[in-house]
Amino acid sequence: MEFRVLIRFVLVSFLFIFVTSCTKEVHIDIPGYKDQLVVDGSIETGQPAIVLLSKSHNVYSATNLQAYLDGFVSGATVIISNGTVTDTLTEICSDNLPPGTEEIAAAFFGLPVDVIVNMHLCAYISLNMVGEVGKTYELKVIYNGVEYTSTTEISQPTPLDSLYWKPEGSFVDRGFSWAKLSDPTASGDAYCWQVKMAGMPNFKKTFNPFFNDKFFNGKSFEFAYENPMSFDDPNIDPAYKGYYKLGDTVILKLSKIGKQEYNFFEKKYNQMYSGGNPFATPTNIPTNIKGGALGIWVGYSPWFDTLVCQ
Amino acid sequence: MKLIFSFLLILVSFSTFAQSKVTLSGYITDAKNGEAMSEVKVYIPALKLGALSNSYGFYSLTVVPGKYTVEYRSMTYGSEVREVDLTKSTVLTLELGSKVTDKNEVVVNMKKTENVTSTKMGQIELQMDQIKTLPAFMGEVDVIKTIQLLPGVSSVSEGGQGFYVRGGGPDQNLVLLDEGVVYNAAHLFGFFSVFNADAVKSVNLIKGGMPANFGGRMSSVLEVNMNEGNMKKLKVKGGIGAISSRLTIEGPIKKDKGSFIVSARRTYIDVIMKAAISDTSPFAGSSYFFYDFNAKLNYKLSAKDRVYLSGYYGKDVFNFSDKKGGFGANMPWGNGIAAVRWNHLYSDKLFMNLTTTYSDYMFKFGSQQDEFRFELASGIKDVGGKVDFSYFPNPKHRIKWGADYKYHTFTPTSVSAANDTTVFDTGAAQKLYSHEAALYALDEFDLNDKIRLNVGLRYSAFAHVGPFTRYVKGDGISTQDTTIQYHKGDLIKFYNGLEPRISMRWLLPDNSSIKAGYAYNYQYVHLTSLSAVSLPTDIWFPTTDIAKPEKGWQGSVGYFRNFFNDKFESSVEVYYKGMKNLIEFKEGALPGDNVSDNTDNLLVFGQGWAYGVEFFFKKSVGRFTGWVGYTWAKTERKFPDINQGNVYPAKYDRRHDLSLVGTYKLNERWTFSASFIYATGNTLTLPSSWYVQEQNLLFNYGPRNSTRMAPYHRLDLSATLYSKAYKTKTDPATGKEIEVKKRYRSNWAFSIYNVYNRMNPFFLYVDNDGDFLSGNFKLSVKQVSLFPIIPSATWNFEF
């Protein structure tokens, strides 16, 4: 993760060269497009499995909202199994949501409530099974006669040792929040870090939310994290973006994930942060879905904690 | 090993019939400054026999006794003739050019026919005087940019220093500065070369038919020889350019016995940046500069012994500061090279050069983001020695043999990181140690009047030794991760092999010849890059038990012909190159992946091939000189673990490459030059599709290097205005006005880069703008072009 600092630096260092550079749009042949299914599925301790299916788009295809929405796939058969119980997921569509779930669905699709209730966006949800620690979950998707499979596990969560807040620099009432984590001795532990303010319905990932124990295996260490919600709030002064303020109540979610799943997210964020960088090696994000699909099937094992910034 | 000694014995046995002959030998130096002159042809017309002086100016020609007219032909001064009584072996050390009054006079080609008669293929020597008159990017005269104008040589990208020779990677070029290996020949991320033109004497590129005295790389040898220093008088020269200034001082330590030269160059980009960034700016403290320093000293210990000390030190330093973001970084990188050489004449036929070299390339990166600190370093360090013998038994044989040894210390990655008081476990700094050695012998001999052969054999060996920690990855199920510890001196892996080299010239009528060559090469050090272009962050890595030596062979055939009394030279060469054990990082590998792991665990291996045809037409004499080079080529790669095992074009695969270079000397004061290049666009990998996961737009890339940028073409112009060489003065003896050569000279070099302001592609990327909800989301392919039309002026002086 720290190597992104280097990538960032190399990028910044080239800025001065690009001061005199010129950028223009060109249309150039890019071979290799394939119509592929995209699986975006997860299961979390105590939560049902949710799977979104969509299609990949040609880079030169239309990129309006309709094209994006048309990419979602319905009518597939989605099955999960934990070895003893098998559940065929129910397709629930945004134009026919159970009462009270509109906001959750809106956050899930990343669209406003008033938009999704007028759309036919479908997700596949396990109504007869929730995630359990220690279980392995097999996913099977059958679409257009093609079978796609994957496996993920919900492992033991890693608890946080402690939490605290402290003002940053010259600020008195603004600062980063800090956490102390003791990593288990086995190597390869990987985590996802999410936060939300008390009262908010959904957690939000920090800018660099996935990390593993490559640099701190078996060690205790403290780290700071920013306030990602502040960047969505137009009422917050730009000078205070990223900080928690004195008195905030923050709910933290540290989710353990598997190695393969971490590999997907690591490469995903690397691609997102190096987008357009000519010096980065073009890297396809490695999926754990077998059968020719893109995407991920991930099991989250969360640990929750609450911090009052004081 | 036995083979090479047997081969040597056979070569030496050829010479035994030369007992009743006499030898003309000696050193050739430049009368103006006393520096050794290489590649001077010593020719006896009566016998139609000749020899070339070597890079130290030594020549030896064994003939039957008699009185002869001997011609000494050099590119710089034309022909000088001496009547020599060769009734016995004679040492004739002479200075050429004493009769020439102005070095700026029109070039004459006195090495005529050499293009046709030598066995050299794919070999070009460039004179600095010629390079200095060509258009220069931002006024910086650049030897590497000039060789990129030659057929078979491609540049990496706009303004880039890396070069690809006949389909080989940039690490397959052996770049030597006074026999010391240069591991990174670029400043400023590749826009300028490390070679200060004022300190360079000559440049020699061997892109095919590599003779057996060179090895360790698969594609080419670029020999850059530093000036030796003026043996006659103290001279100062320098220049003030748009981004840097230079100063060189040279002179005798003892006249005609020894000399020195020191040359320094520094950019002032940091000064410009400082002026542009106010002290209150969050970026205050950001800066960049590079400097380099060359020094050389030589001394004639006796008529048979001479020593040379050469040194180079150069560094780039990049500082970045973002006070607002709490981020600061420092990135220095650079080379240090030193060479000590001893020339010794055992006899008038046997010349020896003993060299010890030291090369050090390092790259460091340090950063601090708030309380998080991070440091990374990589590098390579060589200590070595080589000995070369040149034996001239008779005019028909020119024999060389020698040995070469290097001890390499590689630091692929050394990382440390800490957050406040917590120090992260980044593993121990990995160092790799290895021995590389070679023995060689070659003979260039005339089979008959028509056929000349250069036959050589090189035996190379490489040993990867401890201490070393091998990380062995388990599958996590039946096997777990583990390590193997090797102690100091433990032999981890040994490789060796024979590298046959042969080239042949067959003289044809009409001043033409056919040449053919074959060379087999092992390469034991590799440059691994995670980036699509060459960067100082690229890692030099040795052959190990996992990374095998790269192997390459090249076969080439060419037709060479001169026209109009050798005013025009031309050649057509066809080549095929095969390469095995090529190295790339695994798809998806990240820079941090080799922490607590071995870099070679992240590598994949494959093969490649390249073929093409090169046309070269050159005019070397007259007021107008220049060349036209055209290359048609194809370069491909096949790696089982890349691109799903399918063949893909190398990133420097270019179908067409055309260069036109011309220089016109109008008069004593004005010289004009132009260069034009056209090249098929570079390949690259772009996303062919997009998809969404957790509301994030992600890309899926198409086949490796399947997209090709628009063609690259550019015209550069330059004009050089020299100050008057002479001034008039009244002769006190006669009272008449006479012309006296000025001690102080200067010139203005004006250049226009990219005259017609072509926006050439530097790179392409897929840009996503807007968002779905607002309805203004758009994906588009953007082309970034770097340099528009750039005029520049440099003022140069000498006295």
Mass-distribution shape of chain B: globular
**CATH superfamily descriptor of the domain at 2-105 in chain B:** Carboxypeptidase-like, regulatory domain
CATH fold-type name of the largest domain in chain A: Immunoglobulin-like
What is the string of SSEs of chain A from the N terminus onward?
A: HHEEEEHEEEHHEEEEEEEEEEHE
Largest sheet of chain A: 8 strands, mixed
Kindly report how far apart the N and C termini of chain B lie.
54 Å
Query: Spans of chain A with pLDDT under 50 lasting ≥5 residues?
Result: 1-7
Q: What does the overall shape of chain A look like?
A: globular
Radius of gyration of chain B: 28 Å
Total domain count of chain A: 2
Strand content of chain A: 35-45%
Largest sheet of chain B: 22 strands, antiparallel, barrel
Name the features.
heterodimer, A: about 300 residues, alpha+beta, Immunoglobulin-like, 2 domains, 8-stranded mixed β-sheet, 4-stranded antiparallel β-sheet, about 15% helix, B: about 800 residues, mainly beta, 5-stranded mixed β-sheet, 5 helices
Description:
The complex is a heterodimer of chains A (310) and B (799). Chain A contains six helices and 18 strands. By secondary structure, chain A is α+β, with helices and mostly antiparallel strands. Chain A folds into two domains: 36-154, Immunoglobulin-like (Sandwich); 160-258 and 304-308, Immunoglobulin-like (Sandwich), CATH 2.60.40. In chain A, a hairpin with a 6-residue loop joins strand 13 and strand 14 (204-212). Residues 1-7 of chain A have low confidence and may be disordered. Chain B has a domain at 2-105: Carboxypeptidase-like, regulatory domain (Immunoglobulin-like, Sandwich). In chain B, strand 51 (763-769) and strand 52 (778-785) form a beta hairpin. Residues 11-18 and 101-110 of chain B have low confidence and may be disordered. At the A-B interface, helix 1, helix 2, strand 1, strand 4 and strand 15 of A face strand 22, strand 23, strand 24, strand 25 and strand 44 of B. Strand 1 (22-26) of chain A pairs antiparallel with strand 52 of chain B, so a sheet runs across the interface.
